[in-house]
Amino acid sequence: MEARITNPAGLLPDAVQAVNLLYKAAHSAGVPSTILELVHLRASQINGCSPCVDSGARAMRKSGESDDRLFTVPVWRETPYFTEPERAALALAEYATRLADRPDPVPDEIWDEAAKHFAEKELAAIVLWIATTNFFNRINAATKQPAPQNWG
């Protein structure tokens, strides 16, 4: 696949600065990086964002994530590999990514389960990170950004 244009966020310097601020904000609230990485990967899988799935899985593996967990993120409900907080965050990521699929995009039971495991500031960071991931996914899908070919 060939990209339609260079990634728009890279072409507009102010966008890069804004994205860096979003990243910093989401990663400064005390949410374990594993949780943020999982929601990023799951939202990117749902949206079919090849560069984000590729880079997300590679980053998780580099930080020590097991193949069992990496390979089963799409079917996390049917595996024993994820903690209750991770499951709550993954469910929130799925619902917040698939907003148009139901009349109540994020039902109370999904939110309430996440709220059992995360403080308000942490929930804010998770929601912000899901939104940021969806932002990147839409840019990459619209412009047909390919996954990198040379990871050497």
What does this structure look like?
There is one protein chain. The chain is an all-alpha fold and 152 residues long. The chain has a single domain, classed as AhpD-like. The protein has helices at 8-11, 13-26, 33-47, 50-62, 67-71, 84-97, 108-117, 120-142. α3 (33-47) runs parallel beside α6 (84-97). The chain is globular. The model has no long low-confidence stretch (mean pLDDT 93). It holds the Pfam family CMD. InterPro entries: AhpD-like (IPR029032), AhpD_core (IPR004675), CMD-like (IPR003779).
CATH second-level architecture: Up-down Bundle
- Give the SSE string: HHHHHHHH
Helix percentage range: 55-70%
CATH fold type: AhpD-like
Q: What name goes with the CATH superfamily? A: AhpD-like
Rg from Cα: 15 Å
Beta strand %? under 5%
Number of helices: 8
Q: How many E strands?
A: 0
Task: Report the average pLDDT across residues.
Answer: 93
- Head-to-tail CA distance between termini: 20 Å
Shape: globular
Instruction: Name the structural class.
Output: mainly alpha
User: How many individual domains?
Assistant: 1
* CATH classification class: Mainly Alpha
What summary fits the major beta sheet? none
Which regions are unreliable across 5 or more consecutive residues at pLDDT < 50?
Answer: none
Q: Which tags fit this structure?
A:
0% strand, CMD-like, Alkyl hydroperoxide reductase AhpD, AhpD_core, AhpD-like, mainly alpha, globular, 8 helices, 152 residues
Brief description of this entry?
Helices cover 64% and strands 0% of the residues. The protein is built from eight helices and no strands. The model has no long low-confidence stretch (mean pLDDT 93).
